[in-house]
Amino acid sequence: MKTLFLVFIHLLCACVLISAACSGTERSDLVGKWHTKDGQTKLQITEKKFIITDENGPVPEDYFVKGDTIFTSFEGNQPYSKFVIEHIDESELKLLYPDSVSVDLIR
After folding, report:
1. What pTM does this model have?
2. Separation CA 75–CA 41 (nearest Å)
């Protein structure tokens, strides 16, 4: 009986870990190619890179997401640039840039 109880506990823990590992994250909504309505600024977000392309050319940066904020850094340098996600769905993204300018992006 004791062995059966221990096996049950281990299986329960394994199920919890597997379900946590397989659940979707906010990052999956971010991944993709975005652009402003006028086409001046383009944003490509991959699993590892945050690439803003404007009149100065592409600027690839590493990033991570914490809550509703995207933290970017150029080649690991600190301090991080903070982009706040004001709204996101499958076709629209509204970001608050580090200089407090709100930018609407679409896919």
Report:
1. 0.65
2. 21
For the record, the structure tokens of 45 come out as: 């977000």
Distance linking the first and last C-alpha atoms of the chain: 57
Instruction: Give every CB contact of residue 40 below 8 A, 6+ residues apart in sequence.
Output: 54, 55
What is the share, in percent, of the chain residues with pLDDT greater than 70? Answer: 88
Rg over alpha carbons for the chain, rounded to the nearest Å, is 19
Nearest Cα to Cα of residue 63 among 48, 53, 51: 48
Six token digits for residue 15: 């199920």
Which residues lie below 8 Å from residue 106, measured CB to CB, with a gap of 6+? 34, 35, 36, 37, 91, 92, 93
Residue 52 to residue 102: CA distance in whole angstroms: 15
Q: Is the pLDDT of residue 25 over 50?
A: no
